[in-house]
Design goal:
This protein is an all-alpha fold and 105 residues long. Helix content is 64%, strand content 0%. It has 5 helices and no strands.
């Protein structure tokens, strides 16, 4: 009984001395309304939950935060209109084959 109970037990640990946590704390202390810091904190927390075996209530919110953080890091406006890019059919097929290989190879 104790073994089955312990195998179902989940632990979430946050290392307050980790450089990401230390930097995040400094950013929040400097500006507690910093949207990027709030997104980073939420992503850090939710990914720690997932890694520890918990389920998160709203996975799409996590995905949105990750996209916003990636856009910020890349210097891309996440709300910019999409640009149409014409890809010749033969190149498109090659790219799809490469993607299949990269994802599953």
């Amino acid at each position: 009984d104790q073994i089955s109970m312990m195998s179902g037990r989940k632990t979430l640990e946050v290392n307050p001395n980790h450089p990401v946590v230390v930097d995040l704390l400094a950013k929040v202390k400097a500006n507690n309304a910093d949207a990027a810091a709030k997104d980073t904190a939420a992503v850090l927390f939710q990914t720690a939950l997932i890694e520890s075996g918990y389920e998160i209530a709203d996975p799409s919110a996590l995905v949105s935060r990750v996209y916003r953080l990636m856009s910020k890091e890349l210097g891309v406006d996440p709300d910019a209109p999409l640009k149409e890019v014409e890809v010749p059919e033969d190149e498109e097929e090659e790219e799809e084959e490469e993607m299949d290989f990269d994802l599953f190879g």
